Protein: Carbohydrate ABC transporter substrate-binding protein
Organism: Nocardioides baculatus
Amino acid sequence: MKNQRTRKGLAAVAVVAVSSLGLAACASDDGGSSNEVSGDAPGKGKPECAQLEQFGDLTGKTVSVYTSILPPEQEAHENSYKVFTECTGAEVDYEGSDQFETQLVVRVKAGNAPDIAYIPQPGLLKTVVSSGSVVEAPQPVSDNVDEFFGEDWKSYGTVDGKFYAAPLGASVKSFVWYSPKMFADNGWEVPQTWDDMLALSDDMAAAGTKPWCAGIESGEATGWVATDWLEDAVLRDAGADVYDQWVNHEIAFDDPAVAEALDRVGGILKNDKYVNGGFGDVKSIATTAFQDGGLPILKGECGLHRQASFYAAQWPEGTDVSEDGDVFAFYLPTTNEDNGKPVLGGGEFVAAFDDRPEVQAFQTYLSSDIWANEKAKATPGGGWVSANTGLDLNNLTSPIDKLSAETFQDPEAVFRFDGSDQMPSAVGAGSFWKEMTAWITGESTSDALGNIEESWPAS
């Protein structure tokens, strides 16, 4: 993942010129494998193994996986591979690293790429694909993604018209956290539109409660929380097409549509009547750790906190995160019904650096509804979800995970990946974070957006 429970992204990963590695030398021209299948699969005849039978008996084979997903989440991932081993006979060698984003590029350059990598940013995927070392996804994987994921998800695993990487896990960022008990005690209702949300904020302020609390401090990544706010607002105000143009710099970063969206965000985050519940004035947002940003809700010092589904892990141990519990979340309302139901989020993508049968089999398994449900069952404590429409919500134990899956599976949902993770690192992990922090502490909308526009690389 993108180390989602601690920060939005890591420091910029330079695009490196990777020499010919020969790692994909066994790949055929169409992305298929040149290796021959041998023997019957150990799981032949079992329904859950049906799609994997085509790869034959892989007993004694090993697939190496490299990822940023560390304990305690690592155990659930490894447990979710048991069906794969039972069906094929192959084993999975799992390696997690907190230096994944930088070390993956180093390993690729050194000719030591893993068989599989879980890549958390489309920009990083493009970087490693540009090295020539990533193998196109085999047809069964493409078929699974067509069946179980939307076109938007497939597009993020596609580079220059070629499909490389299937989606894996996902997170919803378009959530607002609140206290169901506080709402019930005050007769407040979950807002259905942005205007309803502002009216609710006014009611909270009139009742003596600061409506909003926020924190954007995150070490070297300070400011990322505010970028999420802007991305959500652009999606809601201007729609997905304009959002895509903005992310790809087909329109200027300081386009009027973007400025309007940031001013809308400012109507909340820079409104001293609304923030910063439990912490101080508007400027305190910049020095409040994002992990702490929503905690005043538990003390009744704040009513609302916009943050992703993964914020569930930040509530103190023992907090009841449910529809009638201590805290829960609702969908951040839209501002324009013509734009459908925009959903901002993040996730990982499965890229392969070899096309041996066992590697293709593992890719196929991870892109299937079988794996999505096995992973859900292997995560009884919650904290994981996928945009895979074959995921049975009954296998998710956490109410917030179920809400996330329902949001992804909503036919009206229009998903877009986190914008800063798609932008050049000098912007997405640099000027965008910096200028949003300056904006919170007093810089104008025009100056903040103008400075980011000027920072966009010339090529």
About this structure: The chain is about 35% helix and 10% strand. Residues 425-440 form the longest helix (16 residues).
